[in-house]
Amino acid sequence: MFFLRQQRPQGMTPAEAVEQAGTGAVTVIDVREHGEVASSGKAKGAIHIPLMRLRDMADPRHPDFVEALKDAGPICVYCASGARSHSASQLLQQLGYDEVHNIGGLGHWVQAGGEIERG
């Protein structure tokens, strides 16, 4: 019988994202829908941009561009489980953002000690 050793995915862990978000070293984006954010809150300090609007709101040429992304360094994205944030990280890279990390879901953020904000 063969056992495969699981390797940690490359990139930033949720714990690293929580730590760096606390110092302002990363920009955190929540790509869940409005109703999800309304019911559970979002990571403290995160920018909420639903995945369906991300292409417009993260593109500097679009009128709906989010100015907070103008000089963004590393970006961490999350959703509910990690699937939509995977798509979001690929999209952001296509738009030219260099360092984008999928940190999974909001639960991963909380497990890593991240705070939640509501309202």
TrEMBL record:
It comes from the Bacteria. The keyword DNA repair does not apply. GO terms for molecular function: transferase activity. Keywords: Transferase. InterPro entries: GlpE_sulfurtransferase, Rhodanese-like_dom, Rhodanese-like_dom_sf. Residues 22-118 form the Rhodanese domain. The keyword Transferase applies. Pfam families: Rhodanese (PF00581). This is Sulfurtransferase. It comes from Thalassovita mangrovi.
